[in-house]
Design a protein that fits this description.
With 702 residues, the protein is α+β, with helices and mostly antiparallel strands. The chain is built from 12 helices and 38 strands. Strands 1, 8, 9, 10, 11, 14, 15, 17, 18, 22 and 23 form an 11-stranded antiparallel β-sheet that branches. α4 links the parallel β24 and β25. The protein binds 1-deoxynojirimycin (NOJ) and calcium ion. Calcium ion (CA) binds next to loops.
Length: 702
């Protein structure tokens, strides 16, 4: 490694410089950048002297001009940055952003082209992006392909989901490069309206593990004005390369110069806990763009939502008839089907429940016109976002909720008609504000309209940013489902509280999630931002959800409590029905108590796909909360409390699997007990197969 001692060095355009190299602040990561014989920029990354990424190509293929080869390295800039920032909400009150930066300036001739590669090397990983400055021979670039490669040196283990332009609602596979093709061949095309990418393609965020025990989380940060990244995998060569969803002309992105691409990110450590703790993706996003953030409030919520999943007899739709039927134009003329939970009396019951239990909000899915045409008739994908069904009294509900200090949460299912949503957006947000709604859950189920676009395409990335920015103008918080996978933009737009963008808890009612699923999501999907996973499932019998089915959801009841810690989100649902919570009031107490915003987080134990134990400190008190989960296997979590301040005593309220609990046949068996602990304590918590444990620590010094 050649130490870089200069802060800025330029050479004449004709003079090619030697390779550049830079270390992370502590020196554990080393990045090398060079230009090969073809003039293609290449980079490699090593961790504690071991190769992580071996020499890999970089470059962009424009339709008009190429930025992929013929380059000479003409100059570099370096900088060391050590700063910190305070997120509006999150896992930490303060985030340190400490890195060494290397900007590599490249020039190619015939015609003249300029490109800068910007690398930031942190102690926990690497981020890099392409920057195309203004230049005479490229005013804009029609991007056909991004050539970014990630070459690995062995048959590592991958934790990934199949590449699809439209959905990420898959279970993860744990598979080596050498087995990936077989696994993907079996899993392609599972979703009716999604388009699987051709070839051996996976999605980010994904995780690799080397046989030496190095973990590498691969994703992107600050996805703006560009399609989301998938990865082509050349299995025999252990190589991945960027794969961008093309539009119907084969174009990936239309770029107006000057432009920066999103950051490509690699979080690297030989300790799995560091992958979970890493804030690298957030650090690579722009600071908050919203000046007054006082209206952004993390929250817990309940909703009529889960009623539609129990037995599948309740409907989002008000009627079983279709507005699209010839001659029918007015919903109030349609007969109610009597199975519509988003009605005034029922929503009032949820408001009462929320108010009694200190839950902040109630989500009202199925309140607006349009569901009949989409759910039953499948012809019309137009919802009206300012027109309530006849049995949903907007005015009385507003008054009822306000009087009880409960917020109503709006729902905008677009059925992927994003174009129409944009047309209605201002009306929809004005309607929300007029009627007291400060948060909305959006949804994009199905194939995108306009038709040639995809959930991962540049058009949709632009659409969602537009929605978030307009929402911020109206002081509205957003929880988006089926949007492009998050890339840390919640730092820049903290009104974007949560996203789904993965296979959520709802699949417990639609096919089940194995316990390991929530042991891999924090290493993958959550690296982009919080997930609206919808924990809190107390009724786990599959027959409750699907007539004729036997068996259980992939969880114990105590594990559902732990998910509030292991799946952190500033917008956290208690998904089950009030009547199911009323059967287990002592366990529900944990959901009432658990915060959704943290001043500190300590990952105590972690192994992807197997187990996670995390402790978090409430942002608004001195209480700590701990969550521990395991996979299919029983496990003893060893919870070392040495992070507590010395000399202070805490009462631990422990919610745990009973001795005979098992997700398969005894999931609702739990105990609640208390113990006095301090910083010298080590709790040994037995977790049942598919189980978990949740603990509240309250200071008790006197
Ligand atoms: C899919 C979402 O993930 C789910 O939460 C929602 O209830 C349905 N779409 C209907 O909008
Ligand atoms: Ca979904």
């Amino acid at each position: 490694m050649r130490p870089i001692t200069f802060s800025s060095l330029f050479a004449a355009a004709t003079l090619s410089m030697a390779a550049a190299s830079i270390n992370s602040p502590s020196g554990n990561l080393t990045l090398d950048v060079d230009v090969n014989a073809a003039g293609t920029p290449v980079y490699s990354l090593a961790y504690k002297g071991k190769p992580v990424v071996t020499e890999s190509a970089l470059g962009l293929e424009g339709k008009e001009v190429s930025f992929a080869s013929g380059f000479a390295l003409t100059g570099t800039d370096t900088a060391t940055v050590d700063r910190s920032w305070q997120p509006v909400w999150g896992e930490y009150a303060t985030v340190r952003d400490h890195f060494r930066e290397l900007a590599v300036h490249l020039h190619a001739s015939d015609p003249d082209r300029y490109l800068t590669l910007r690398f930031r090397v942190f102690d926990d990983g690497l981020g890099f992006r392409y920057e195309m400055p203004m230049q005479d021979n490229a005013n804009y670039v029609t991007l056909m392909k991004e050539n970014t490669q990630f070459r690995f040196d062995a048959d590592h283990t991958l934790f990934c989901i199949p590449g699809d332009y439209d959905t990420d609602e898959f279970l993860f596979s744990e598979v080596r490069f050498s087995g990936l093709e077989d696994v993907l061949a079996k899993r392609r095309g599972r979703h009716s309206e999604s388009q699987a990418a051709e070839g051996t393609v996976i999605q980010t965020p994904m995780l690799l593990k080397t046989d030496d025990g190095i973990y590498i989380s691969l994703h992107e940060a600050a996805l703006v004005g560009y399609p989301a990244m998938l990865l082509d995998v050349d299995c025999p060569a252990h190589t991945m390369s960027a794969h961008l969803a093309p539009d119907r002309l084969g174009v990936s992105a239309y770029l107006q110069l000057p432009v920066n691409t999103p950051w490509r990110t690699l979080i690297v450590s030989d300790d799995a806990r560091d992958i979970l703790a890493s804030q690298l993706v957030l650090n690579l996003n722009e600071p908050c763009k919203i000046e007054d953030t006082s209206w952004i409030k993390p929250m817990k919520f309940v909703g009529v939502w889960w009623e539609m999943f129990t037995g599948h007899v309740k409907t989002w739709a008000y009627s079983d008839h279709y507005r699209a039927k010839p001659g029918v134009t007015d919903y109030s003329a349609l007969p109610s089907n009597g199975r519509h939970p988003a009605n005034t009396a029922n929503v009032m019951k949820y408001i009462d429940f929320a108010s009694k239990h200190g839950i902040d909000g109630v989500l009202v899915e199925g309140w607006n016109e349009g569901w009949e045409d989409w759910c039953s008739y499948r012809k019309n994908r137009q919802f009206l976002f300012d027109k309530a069904y006849p049995d949903f009294d907007v005015d009385s509900l507003r008054r009822y909720a306000e009087a009880r200090g409960v917020q109503l949460i709006m729902h905008h299912e677009t059925a992927a008609n994003a174009a129409d949503y944009e047309r209605q957006l201002d009306r929809a947000f004005s309607f929300m504000k007029q009627n007291g709604y400060n948060a909305v859950k959006t949804g994009y189920v199905g194939a995108i309209i306009p038709r040639s676009e995809h959930h991962t395409s540049q058009w949709m990335v632009d659409h969602v940013k537009h929605v978030i920015e307009r929402a911020a103008d109206y002081q509205i918080m957003v929880d988006s489902h089926e949007a492009p996978r998050p890339t840390g933009l919640c730092r820049t737009y903290p009104n974007w509280l949560a996203q789904e963008s993965a296979r959520g808890g709802e699949y417990e009612a639609m096919g089940t999630n194995p316990p390991s699923h929530t042991c891999i999501l924090p290493f993958t999907r959550l690296k982009g931002g919080p997930m609206d996973y919808t924990p809190g499932l107390f009724e786990t019998r599959l027959s409750y959800y699907n007539e004729g089915k036997t068996g259980q959801a992939g969880t114990t009841l105590a594990r559902q409590l732990a998910l509030y810690l292991t799946m952190p989100s500033p917008m956290q649902m208690a998904c089950d029905l009030p009547e199911n919570y009323e059967r287990f009031p002592d366990a529900f107490k944990f959901i009432e108590d658990v915060p959704v915003d943290w001043s500190d987080s300590r990952y105590l134990e972690a192994e992807p796909n197997h187990y996670i134990t995390v402790a978090r400190q409430d942002k608004h008190s001195n209480d700590w909360y701990i969550g521990a989960i395991t996979d299919d296997n029983a496990r003893e979590a060893v919870i070392d409390l040495s992070f507590l301040p010395k000399g202070r005593k805490y009462e631990a309220t422990i919610y745990e699997d009973a001795k005979n609990a098992h997700w398969k046949n005894n999931p609702q068996a739990y105990n609640i007990r208390t113990a006095m602990v301090d910083s010298r304590s080590k709790l040994r918590q037995r977790l049942a197969p598919g189980g978990g444990s949740a603990i509240r620590l309250t200071p008790k010094d006197n």
